[in-house]
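R.M. (postdoc): so does anyone remember the format we settled on? I'll just put the structure tokens first.
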């Protein structure tokens, strides 16, 4: 606790008060409200404004006289944002140093980080990381770059649900808890700098996809046992505690719908999670769901008005995680972006407001440990044998000092082709703001290196998708 500033202590105190309050069921962070549905447009009620009650709570909970932030007009204004990847959920490829410093190559994710290290040491490292990886200066830089949103990841193990809030276990062993007050501090920074927040449950009990970015690499057991029901309690708790301090709550990142047990439960989970959030907060807080790798067309008519309101669809757009995508030429990558644009805009026309919520400038999977700690890349054949290879990884990732002028020129064009996707729907969120050593994935380095414009509405290729689509 010696690292915590006075401000953070105040936030902690408030959290404690709020938690006590919550446990006694004497007060709610956000009171219920009813928004009268208007018209029959499935998306119309989305622009409902937060009530004064949630505004008051935001100001109280951020514990300082920060200026109030104008509610974002979803559907009318375009989301332009970055993810704050690798902050409250570790990813070995974003911060390899944290993993290297353990001297233990069996530590491959946040789960094993908690499991295999001395708890005091692990907490110390994590607190230092939570305190330094993203700071208020980053929020200022994000706002200065013309971005209006951050998407912030949180793992279930960081959410301080108590046994009064759930009939399921509250144990998070072996994860190291403690990120929550740092998250609350960040919400204050976001507000101060006029940046809107999508809070994204990135890791659920059991792991919803088996990726290290869910907290635990290996099998995806989320659909087993009580995990799904427990997750509904967790999102209700989040909505109840901080629903007035965030703009959007994303119920779960990237559930692995390729697994039949997950595909079987995901629709009901979106519905139950939606109900839980609505019951806790009324309609000012937006709810985000994802396509679960099943394609947006799988969700035609799902959670649209009047069955639901204020729901957004998150689609993730990467072009590097299979051999068919890796073998595309640079021109074909641009073409691919333009095809995604068509698919998403067709869906969004009669369905949920749609956001391209993760994408990057990478056209290779070369970033060190991108496929997992100790795992190589498809691109250069250092991972799987008897598969196509595409050459050396040199000059594609790592330090931008190795990037050629031609490559940087392409990165700008590729960036614009993917921005075009989000601009054709309700917005876009780049993955990610910073990475220790993967500049093709870094918005910050893109600004510095010139392949990401200082004003995200600037275009060198204004008609990039006008010829390449059907
Ligand atoms: C890892 O090894 C280095 C060099 O021997 C040492 O300084 C450091 O304390 C070790 N870290 C841990 C977590 O044991
Ligand atoms: C826990 O179970 C009791 C008894 O069935 C029920 O009244 C209560 O609402 C449940 N609590 C939660 C948080 O679901
Ligand atoms: C939300 O409220 C509705 C109506 O009161 C109720 O039927 C439903 O069970 C609640 N859902 C959750 C998840 O609390
Ligand atoms: C773009 O992709 C479509 C569908 O794969 C293909 O038919 C078309 O030829 C491609 N165009 C270019 C310029 O590569
Ligand atoms: C990237 O390379 C430049 C030039 O060699 C060097 O000055 C800089 O420290 C490097 N950055 C990182 C993060 O290693």
């Amino acid at each position: 606790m010696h690292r915590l500033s006075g401000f953070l202590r105040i936030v902690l105190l408030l959290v404690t008060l709020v938690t006590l309050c919550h446990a006694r069921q004497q007060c709610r962070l956000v009171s219920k409200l009813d928004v009268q549905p208007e018209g029959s447009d499935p998306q119309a009620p989305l622009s409902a404004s937060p009530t004064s009650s949630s505004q008051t709570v935001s100001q109280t909970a951020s514990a300082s006289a920060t200026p109030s932030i104008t509610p974002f007009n979803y559907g009318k204004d375009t989301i332009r944002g970055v993810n704050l990847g690798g902050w409250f959920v570790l990813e070995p490829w974003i911060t390899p140093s944290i993993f290297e410093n353990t001297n233990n190559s069996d530590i491959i994710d946040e789960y094993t980080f908690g499991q295999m290290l001395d708890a005091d040491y692990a907490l110390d490292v994590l607190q230092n990381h939570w305190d330094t990886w993203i700071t208020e200066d980053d929020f200022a830089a994000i706002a200065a770059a013309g971005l209006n949103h951050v998407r912030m990841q949180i793992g279930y193990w960081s959410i301080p649900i108590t046994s009064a809030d759930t009939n399921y276990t509250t144990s998070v062993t072996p994860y190291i808890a403690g990120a929550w007050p740092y998250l609350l501090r960040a919400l204050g920074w976001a507000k101060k700098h006029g940046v809107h927040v999508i809070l994204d449950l990135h890791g659920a009990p059991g792991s919803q996809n088996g990726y290290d970015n869910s907290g635990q690499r290996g099998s995806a057991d989320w659909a087993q046992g009580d995990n799904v029901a427990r997750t509904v309690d967790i999102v209700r708790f989040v909505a109840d505690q901080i629903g007035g301090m965030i703009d959007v709550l994303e119920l779960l990142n990237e559930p692995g719908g390729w697994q039949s047990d997950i595909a079987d439960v995901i629709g009901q989970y979106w519905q139950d999670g939606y109900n839980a959030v609505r019951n806790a907060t009324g309609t000012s807080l937006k709810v985000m769901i994802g396509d679960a790798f099943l394609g947006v067309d799988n969700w035609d008519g799902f959670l649209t008005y009047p069955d639901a309101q204020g729901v957004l669809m998150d689609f993730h757009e990467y072009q590097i995680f299979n051999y068919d995508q890796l073998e595309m030429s640079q021109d074909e990558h641009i073409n691919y972006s333009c095809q995604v644009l068509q698919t998403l805009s067709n869906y969004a026309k009669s369905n949920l407001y749609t956001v391209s919520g993760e994408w990057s400038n990478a056209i290779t999977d070369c970033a060190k440990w991108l496929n997992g700690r100790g795992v190589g890349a498809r691109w250069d054949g250092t991972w799987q044998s008897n598969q196509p290879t595409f050459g050396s990884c040199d000059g594609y990732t790592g330090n931008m000092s190795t990037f050629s002028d031609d490559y940087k020129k392409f990165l700008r064009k590729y960036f614009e082709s993917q921005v075009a996707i989000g601009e054709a729907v309700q917005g876009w969120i780049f993955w990610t703001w910073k990475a220790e050593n993967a500049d093709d994935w870094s918005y910050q380095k893109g600004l510095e290196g010139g392949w990401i414009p200082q004003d995200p509405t600037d275009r060198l290729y204004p008609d990039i998708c006008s010829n390449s689509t059907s």
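R.M.: ...and that's the designed sequence above, right after the tokens. Also worth knowing: Residues 399, 401 surround 2-acetamido-2-deoxy-beta-D-glucopyranose (ligand 5) (CB under 6 Å). Confidence is low (pLDDT under 50) at residues 1-42, 44-66.
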